[in-house]
Amino acid sequence: MRSYLLLIAILTCFFFSCTDKENKIVSKLLNEDNLQSQFFTIDINRDTVVQTAKGCIIQIPKGSLLSDSNKVRLEIKEALSNTDIVLAGLSTMAGKQALSSGGMIYFDAASGYKVEIKKQLSILVPTKTYNREMKVFKGDTVDGKINWTNPSPLPEDETTKKLDHGKDLFTANCGNCHKVYEELTGPALYGITDKRSKEWIYAFTRHNFFTADSEKEGEGVYKSNEANTPAPENMYKQVQLHDGHPGYLSEEDEAYIYHECQKKKYGAEMTAFPNLSNKDIDVIFSYIKNETDKRPDLKEKLKDNCCDSCIAYYKASARINEIENKRKQLIRENENFFSLNRVIPNLPPAPPDTIPAAPALEQNTKVTPVNTGATYYTINITATGWYNIDILMKDYSNCVPSELMVHLQGNYSIDFNVTLIIPSVKAFINGGKLGDGKGYGFDEADGRIPLPQGANCIVLAFAENDGKIVYGKAVFNAQTKQTINISISAITKDELKKEIMALGLDNVSADITDSKNADKIREADKELKEIERLKPKNCDCGITLASTMQMDMPVKVPTAGNY
Asked: What is the pTM of this model?
């Protein structure tokens, strides 16, 4: 809906009172090639309202124009913006003093018609801002240029009355704590009507944070039929997710969060105004809106205050649980991070001095190979004709009981896939965590394993960490007791494949690719990081903002009646 400023007929009278010579000057100054003419045919014996292309409204009462015919054709041109004024070559000078223009209008009889003003006309010019200090000037031509003289105050109309009343109410109720353009004992109110709805403003002004419908005046504060009866204990506002609307907060939720933040930031409770009507609140914030629009240069500086940031973060945080659950599901649908496909051939003949098989133990003492789901990457190794540890134990006499432990350097809280490779006996063995959780082994949970002494051995370790593959390698000769330390560093998919293929292992191939849902998981990660960036810095929001929010664990906050 447009708002209008009322301009009295003194502006239009200038154009009608010009001589023919002056009209030519004005036409030249207006530069008809740049300002489009608009034509309207009216009956001067009827009340008429004309609306121009740019929204100006010209009210022409019956009998206000005099002509030699009832039907008159009018020509109107508008110069409302700075661009229009410059293109038209119009002056905004009053003598030697520069003026700030709210717009100019050219109004005259079209060619072939004559008209004279007998009574005052009214022109309403659309504007985003209303400045009570602006005046209406009469235009006179001096040396071919327009000079604006005889300023008169803007006439009073509904717009001026509303804004003046809003200013008075603002001063009386808000002015002790708030200014529009800067902080006082409360935040600057610049731009608040662009950020918040009417319902939010009603709820916040009255502290009606648990009201189902804040537009209904008088509701929102608990009332009892009996004197001194306290509000029931279960009357709490729950700031929580609403079913089917992840991340949704009601207007009252937001008002409460904003209120608590301000209370924490400024050290005092904002006064509630339960007795202000909706109409009173509307005119107060219409005044604030008009003052805001006067200073577009402050928009970036005052875009968000601490409490705005709290609400934005709280709303975004409400989506974390949904995003994390989606992310977990995508990981569950992925392949394993590492898979070893051993195509084992027929067993070779056992050497004559085979080590006897170990007796069966009542309790399983073997390590459990790490088997993690893929997040971003999958590593698949195919080893054709390679064996596992059981064959080493049963069929090779040069394998003797040994102890082998692997420690990874660095503070990692993730599980690694570790693999022992013994090329001389074609063994490719997956490892797992030792019983004490401090390292990795490949057979028994205490590190025991039969090994061919002196044989060349390779241990590979890899995992996913912070969206990257991390990797380490160690090459050594088997001994009866040894601990291998491996340094870990980040590596790309292509680099890891080259590392494995450079080992020169017969009939071994490696395939390192993105996981099935890698792209979707990265999108979820990006959303989570963006939410984290919204977290207010150097700002105490006054309530706990959950980093993860559960649907069944709402944040409980007291009602306005308990303040």
From this structure: 0.54
